[in-house]
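Self-study notes.
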Amino acid sequence: MLPFVFTQQAPSYDSAKVFYVRVDPGIGVSDELIKSLYYLLWFPGYFGFNWDALYDCLRDFEWIPCHKIVVFHEALPPLDRKELKIYLEVLRDSVLDWRSNDTHELEVVFLCSDKMEIEDILKG
C-alpha cells in the first residue's frame, strides 16, 4: 500500500498549523523540480540539488515551525519514467521514515486519477 494521500481535489488546511506547498505540474525536468522544492520547502543553503540531498532535507525540516508538512501534486510531474520513479521513491521513503518520528509529519498528496500510474511506476 502506498503511503501517499489520494484525493479528488486540492485539499485545504489551516495555514497556521500546516506548511502546505503545491508542486507546479508543468515542471518536466528533474533539476527544475528539485530547485522548485528547494524554494517551496525553504531548504537550507547547504542543499546539494540532487536526489540524495532532497531525501536528506525531506527527512529533516527543523527549519519549518509547523508539525505537518503537505506536498500537493495536482498532476504527476512530466519527468521521464526513470526520473519520476526516483522522485516517487524519495517521497515514499521520506513519508515512511517520518511515521516513526513525532517531530514532523510529511504528507504527500496526489489526485486519485494518478494512483494507478504511481503504483505501476513504483512496481517497475
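Second protein, same conventions, sequence then structure:
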Amino acid sequence: MIGCGCDVCLSTNSKDQRLRTSVLVQSKHTSIVIDTTPDFRYQMLRSKTTHLDAVLFTHQHKDHIAGLDDIRAFNFFSGNAMDIYANSSTEEAIRRDFYYAFSDKRYPGTPELQMHTIGEAPFFIGDIPIQPIHVMHHRMPVLGFRLGDFTYITDANFIEQSELDKIKGSKVLVLNALRKEKHLSHFTLQEALDIAQLTGVPQVYFTHISHQLGMHEAINAELPNHAQLAYDGLCISL
C-alpha cells in the first residue's frame, strides 16, 4: 500500500508483495487472462506470456480494467484484434474509458478490441469452456467464472445459492478474502472459508488480499489443509 509502513508492506517475503489481482488460464491450445489490472504489462512480462487469445472481465472497477491498453502488444504479434468478454455494464465502461480504441478513425497503434457481451449462457473460448457465475460486489453485479474444473471469483461479498451450485464439482476454487474485519463489498477471510465449505471444492486459494489481513506465512498457518493464500506467480496445474 502506498505510504504504509506496516509489517506486511515492509516484508521482504515475495509472497507478501502483491500486485493487483489477475489470473492467466492456459490449456494446450488457448490462453485467457481474467482482468487487465494497472499492473497488466508487468504481469505479462514477468510471466513471459507471448500469446493471448482473449480477456475476460469480472467488472469495471479500475483495478480490473486499467491495463487494457497494453493489449496492443498482443495485437502486434498476432496481427488480430483481441477478443474481449464482459457483461454489458463493464463493456459500457470499457468503451467509455478506452474510447480511442473504438473510434471510426483509430490512431495507428491503438489497441484492437473485439467486444463480446456475456449473458447467462455458457460459452467456449478455444477449447476452454466458460460458465459465468453471477455474484454481488456490494450493490454491483459482477462476474466470476468457471473454466472447466477451475473457478475464479474476486470482488464479491454475496453469492446466491443458484450460483454456488455452478461452482460445485470444481477441483480448484479461487475466492477473494480481503481481511479478517468486516468489509462493505468483499468477503472476510472467515466468510470466504464458509463459502468454500458450502461448495465442497477440495482445494481453495484466497486472493484479492489486503495488507490488513496479515503476513502470508502467519495467515497460511491458521488455515485448514484444503485452503491457502494465493500469491503472485503461483502456478496451479489441473
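Instructor comment on the second fold: The chain has two domains: 1-17+124-230, 19-118.
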